[in-house]
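Summarise this fold before class:
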Amino acid sequence: MHVSVSVRGLRKCNLLSFFCSGQTGAIARGLNQIQKHFLSVYNVNSVLNRRFHYLRCQQSSSTMEQAAVATPTPAEVNSPVSEEKTITKEATESGKRKSDEPGEPETSGRGKRRRGAGGKKLRPGERYVPPPQKRNPGISFRQEHFDETSYYFEGGLRKVYPYYFDFKTYCKGRWIGKSLLEVFKSEFRAESIEYYQRAAKEGRIRLNETPVEDLSTVLRNNDLMKNTVHRHEPPVVGRPLEVLVDDGEVLVVDKPASIPVHPCGRFRHNTVIFILGKEQGISELHTVHRLDRLTSGVLLFARTLEASKKLDQLVRDRQLEKEYVCRVEGEFPESELICEERILVVSFKIGLCRVDPNGKECRTVFQRLSFNGKTSVVRCLPLTGRTHQIRVHLQYLGFPILNDPIYGSSAWGPHRGKGGLVGKSNEDLLQALVEEHRSQESLHMLDIPDDGIGIEQEAEKNKTSEKEDTLGGTCELNKSGESHQIDTQVMTGCGSKSETVDKVSQGCTDSNGNKTSLESRPTKSNGNQTEPATPKTQPETRDHLCSECKLVRPDPTEKELIMYLHALRYKGADFEYSTRLPDWAKEDWVEADWS
């Protein structure tokens, strides 16, 4: 490569023809010597300098003029040939070693200088912030996660013993330059400042894996915050997960209502993913679709990456037929109804949607199955997959799903959203929904803290987002597992704190490890079975900083755990998975008295 550059230089000076003509044998022999030692740029240049020094001195003025003529004009510089020569030369020069260039210190590795102590020098008092870690795009929970705590069963509910857990988040852009104290005051108000100060003194708050005792520390970009909390999970129904199909490629379960599919918000162990892993040893599943926490029915997982890609393609091509059943308020029309109203996502935090002309197109077919004089059972065929599509379309038609905590709410106004009549902006609708559930002490139905801080912040942001139309609906809110909520709940680990609580411990153990304030004897999980047992005497199940340990909560009622919407059947070209019809969908079903 170096020889070719030198030869091009000879050609440029019109010396190559003279050199190759054999007029000087010594020079020809010199060329052979150069070719034999072409590996060293230094040797090549040295030989050329010695052999051609005399020729350069004797070069006539005519030769100089010819060399000037050979200099490329501006037009030639832009030509493809000249560009190719330039690139070749630059590539040749860039191939030099760093040590061959004077004045450049030699560096190890690939020429990149290490950050921190080995690279950029830190000013006095400046903190070193490591680069962000690469995140695994996939989610695979292992036995070490399943062993964090265990279940116990009580009153028909599946409960989780409290446990310690590290919530983590990288510094957000709006936090840069603010102290930890400022961020806790403005963003994580579910706990008092005194709590965070005590937690910091005990080493529970860490910045880049280093305990932080002083909350005046100023946050910088890429700071990794960790907060160790004493985590309490809400109860879910105690019915075991029934596996319908497990053929090595696809796993199909009949999901009970009240159980989330994957870890999110306040739920981690009381989720389908963790229950399957803890009780049946099934892990490394690929999520094909999701069901709302209060929705029951057919839930598909792929066992392999190939099966996941195949099912995902069916979903994208709308080749996966879905059939749901629900019970709605009022007498649904006997004739088939098709709703094609567009749906817009209002709040990604709780998945709140509404009919809006700026939303995503969608289509749902409805057929009445029965009417008992008060409520109707309706067959639903969603031909698209928008968030809360069935629930939003039924609300628009004036037949909200029975026991729907969002779309059956009076926060939508006197018409409750029928015909798209709301009369409120998106932020006002969010605020009204939060206020209604707060007054009823049921904010946990929205899966948010009962102070509603996260929703209030989102409503404030939506004032600007609405103008820019940046809240287009999507069929799935999140595909990254448990990382989609890192606001108030994530860093504090708090659940909803009901106003009607007594300062007595429930769900925790006293200093002797004995269960307190529990009337019935719990059972613990043992695979698919449950057996009577004394609660585990784990000292860590009670924490002196945890405000949840000082509260006693009434168990949730069936009305708080079940919404009358069920995924009955999923069908493809060569498969069909279905469940039994739920009891509430039968003609002789009578609604329970919730009063």
